[in-house]
Amino acid sequence: MSRRTDKKKLKRMNESAVSQASVTVATVSTVKADDAATASETTAPVSQPSAAYDLYIQYQGADYNAEELASQILEKCKAEGMDSADLKIYVKPEDKKAYYACAGGNSYIEL
């Protein structure tokens, strides 16, 4: 095929994709409007879905669960009266420590 034929074919494919996308957007917007009316009628609290995965850190034969580390750090923050907003956790397995920084200060826990 020549380049011109390929360009024409590509142009037709793009035009059909754009027209299909506009139909999909119109359908989605009407569905969202219906859902908004239904959602405003209900007053049930919305809960955040939990993580669908577990994160483990393995280093030189040691195994650490990130969720357990986070819960230990949050407990330590509460015990020390720190504000755990903007919490950042840095795991350093070679030192066997997990450092953390938050709005109330910074410290570490032993792994």
Describe this structure in words.
The chain has 111 residues and is α+β, with helices and mostly antiparallel strands. 49% of the residues lie in helices and 23% in strands. The chain contains two helices and five strands. The strands form two sheets. The chain has a three-stranded antiparallel sheet with strand order 3-4-5, with helices on one face. It has a two-stranded antiparallel ribbon with strand order 1-2. Strand 4 and strand 5 form a beta hairpin. The longest helix is centred in the first third of the chain and has 39 residues. The chain is elongated and about 70 Å long. About 14% of the residues have low confidence.
Strand content: 15-25%
Proportion of helical residues: 40-55%
3D shape: elongated
What is the string of SSEs from the N terminus onward? Answer: HEEHEEE
List unreliable stretches of 5+ residues: 23-33, 36-40
Let me know the largest β-sheet: 3 strands, antiparallel
Strand order, main sheet: write it out.
3-4-5
The counted number of beta strands is: 5
Structural class estimated from helices and strands: alpha+beta
**N- to C-terminal distance:** 64 Å
Mean pLDDT: 74
Q: Can you count the helices? A: 2
Q: Work out the radius of gyration.
A: 26 Å
